[in-house]
Amino acid sequence: MSQTFTWTAGPVTMTFAYGDDRPVAVQSVQMNDVKTRFDRTTPIAEIITTGDGHVPAGNRLTHTGIGLALRYRGHRATVEGTRHTLAVTLGDDVRGIEALVRYEVDERVAMVRTDVTVTNTGAAPLLVDFVTSWSSAFGAPEGVVPDARAWDLFEGRSDWLAEGRWSRRPVNDLLPVISQELTGVDPRQGHQVVSSGTWSTGMHLPLAVLESKTFGLAWLFQVEHNGAWRWDVEDDTVDGGIALSGPTNENHGWCRDLKPGESFTTVPASFTLAGDFDAAVRRVTDYRRVMRAPHPDHAVTRTVFNDYMNTINGDPTTEKELPLIKAAGETGVEIFVIDCGWYDDSGDWWPSVGEWMPSKTRFPGEKGIVEVVDAIKAAGMVPGIWLEPEVVGVDSPVAKRLPDSAFFQRRGRRVMEHSRYLLDFRDPVARAHVAAVVDRLVTEYGIGYFKFDYNVSPGSGTDYDADAPGDGLLGHNRAYSAWIESLHRRYPDLILENCSSGGMREDFAQTGRFQVQSTSDQQDWRLYPVIAAAAPMMVLPEQAASWAYPQSDMTDEETAFNINTTFLGRFFLSGYLNRMDAGQLDIVRQGVKAYRRHVQPVIGQSVPFWPLGLPGWDDPLLAYGLDCGDTALVTVWNRGGEGGDVRLDLRRWRGRAGAVAAVYPTEGFESWPVHWDAGRGELVVRVPAGVYVSRTFEISFAPRS
Questions:
Q1: How far is 551 from 324, CA to CA, in rounded Å?
Q2: Could you read off the pLDDT of 574-625 as tens digits, one per residue?
């Protein structure tokens, strides 16, 4: 006989069904006023062990024999402050397995975080090959027949210099009709998305959206992990299915040998159900702010200058830095970062990383690098510095000083990638070494901002003191996250930037612990707007550090185009400002001033939106906006396209009177004709044709009547 129980946590209500002859499954989900229910019995935990596989055979994350065999043992709901937790206990006495499925909701946002803990309750070892963090059917509204073909999938691909390329495809293109019902079993087909190593967003993205305009529903889901992961969209005959996991044996060389009484907990995943794509983006934006680690920087997102991109490029010296510091300070930016190379005496900064002692040849004065740091402070800016804490160069003395146990190994040999060894943060010696470096730079030099980079990836991982290479990698990933948390406990005001060859690690395990997120290493100012506009799909607008690197040989319009690329994110500046004349520098200064007046006060409460849809890599016309409640900020770029009147979709403010003003650039620049069409909810902008130009506008809306 089937039984049910319901859990309500603020705006989220989930109903579960179970029985003596069936596993626990979610029967319905409601978030705010959006509800779906499920015809398909999808187990809330799916587990594969070496001794127990799929039913029927396949390589999916679902349809596992253990998932079907687990039975309800109990559930417990708790509340602590605004956080609600539901723990559902499942068991299989024959196999000797217990699974604890945990759901967590902060009542301030309609989104669920979930993970699964598996315990070996038997008498023999249990070799686990994968455990899902979350699985679900697509579902449909009450009284409507589910249909996987009624959905579209938004997914993203990233590469170095080409991050955040989103596409929308009908699920029917991914999962064709194959008449599997004639076989009497569910199909094997699925759309599998896999990331390996530690560049968690280096190829595919761990976040995706399923939207059905037919049903008025949208799922947004993500794997919250800074290492290997996988998600599937599957065909289940009567409906579609979703499944998320961290590393697996098949894809990542991961397994866990659980001795009797031992447990393993999956990486977390999270999901939300909304009415459409825009509502799902609003939910995940709120979720990121609620669930990230607290930090003083969240109140005011300070502006940054970094000396690297298209400027010093890893060759800093006192002679080069001092004029840049002076010019940057005059623009009004608040943080100045010395990027890579500051520790290198050899002339090749790449393989010499690891000891992190300031170079005496690059900073030859009596005070050494302190002269540069003091100049940053004297100019009214917070000094920042670049580190790559997870690696040691093969030419660094630290490579010989630290024991092999401090490094990734496979079969007794250190893993080496592009002239670097990789530190294993499970090892206390490795953690102590890097912690001492940070302590020295903070206490001796007064560093208040770190750019943590990560330019290599270790492949499958390390088999040292691990059941498999993927197991060692997962342990390192978790230890690194814990180490970041320890830094915040020691230095609560320290600002941390997450960079991994640009945007190769934009997962929420990282962005939830860092204040600033690099979006790319892209050096072409003509290409960067696509990356900048798409970045808030993965990170908060106030975290998204997209480079602006104006130069003295650029036209005024090109300089403004650069500034607008960073304008609706974390203002992130580079370029040889010291080579500009007074008029050129004033254009930059106007950008910083406009940002601090119009963007800085509101960006931390804003929600991203795309008035022309998510940008395509080759689109000549791009638009990105911030919904700030009763105001909107919108940047428009033309990359040599046709121009003319462009109608931007702002229908969320349809019917409200609005006043439009140019925000940047303004003084000395040609104004673009623009007006607000309240009846259609469109901002109409006349864009010049055939040139690279950009403008940012602010629209102030009258209160709703």
A1: 12
A2: 999 999 999 999 999 999 999 999 999 999 999 999 999 999 999 999 999 9
Q: Tokens 């180490």 — which residue?
A: 483
Asked if residue 56 has a cis previous peptide bond (ω within 30° of 0), the answer is yes
Rounded-to-5 percentages of helix, strand, coil across the chain: 25, 35, 40
The two tokens of residue 371 are 């002269």
- Domain presence at residue 29: yes
Alpha-carbon span 204 to 618, nearest angstrom: 19
pLDDT at 690 over 90: yes
Strand, helix or coil at 310? helix
Backbone angles phi, psi at 150, to 5 degrees: -90, 5
Distance CA 70, CA 41 (A): 13
Within a domain: 589: no
Q: How far is Cα 264 from Cα 286, in angstroms, rounded to an integer?
A: 30
CA 250, CA 76: separation in Å to the nearest integer? 34
Residues 262 and 159 in one domain: yes
Q: Are 484 and 201 in contact (CB under 8 A)?
A: no
CA distances from 20 to 1, 484, 486, 558 (A): 7, 45, 46, 68
**Structure confidence by residue, pLDDT tens digits, 648-689:** 999 999 999 999 999 999 999 999 999 999 999 999 999 999
Look at the chain and count its residues: 705
Q: Span 403-418, mean pLDDT?
A: 98
Provide DSSP, 347-382. S--STTTTS-PPPTTTS-STTTHHHHHHHHHHTT-E
Inside any domain, residue 423: yes
Please give the torsion angle defined by the CA atoms of residues 497, 500, 501 and 502, in that order, rounded to the nearest 10 degrees.
Answer: -50
How many whole angstroms separate alpha carbon 112 and alpha carbon 271? 5
Which of these three, 234, 256, 291, is where a domain ends? 291
Task: Give, in degrees to the nearest 5, the angle at Cα 226 between 220 and 228.
Answer: 85
Cα(60)–Cα(231) distance, integer angstroms: 10
Please report, for the domain that includes residue 316, its CATH number: 3.20.20.70
Identify the domain containing residue 459 by its residue range: 296-518
**Can you give the C-alpha Rg of the chain in angstroms?**
26
Give the 3-state secondary structure of residue 342. Answer: coil
Residue with tokens 């550090």: 545
Q: Are strands 658-664 and 674-677 parallel, antiparallel or unpaired?
A: unpaired
Residue 88: inside a domain, yes or no? yes
Instruction: Indicate if 287 and 319 belong to the same structural domain.
Output: no
In whole angstroms, give the CA distance from residue 491 to residue 475. 24
Same-domain check for residues 131 and 49: yes
pTM tops 0.85, yes or no: yes
Domain CATH code at residue 15: 2.70.98.60
Q: Are strands 516-518 and 495-498 parallel, antiparallel or unpaired?
A: parallel
Chain centre distance of CA 353: 26
**Looking at the structure, do residues 237 and 95 belong to the same domain, yes or no?**
yes
Give the C-alpha separation, 296 to 448, whole Å: 12
Last residue of a domain, one of 463, 497, 518: 518
The SS3 call for residue 166 is strand
Residue type, 556: D
Q: Please state whether 608 falls in left (phi above 0), alpha (psi between -120 and 50) or beta.
A: beta
Of 409, 241, 328, 226, residue with least CA distance to 575? 328
Q: How far apart are CA 470 and CA 256, in angstroms?
A: 9
User: Nearest-CA neighbor of 626 among 576, 697, 689, 685?
Assistant: 697
- Spatial separation of the C-alpha atoms in residues 554 and 504, rounded to whole Å: 29
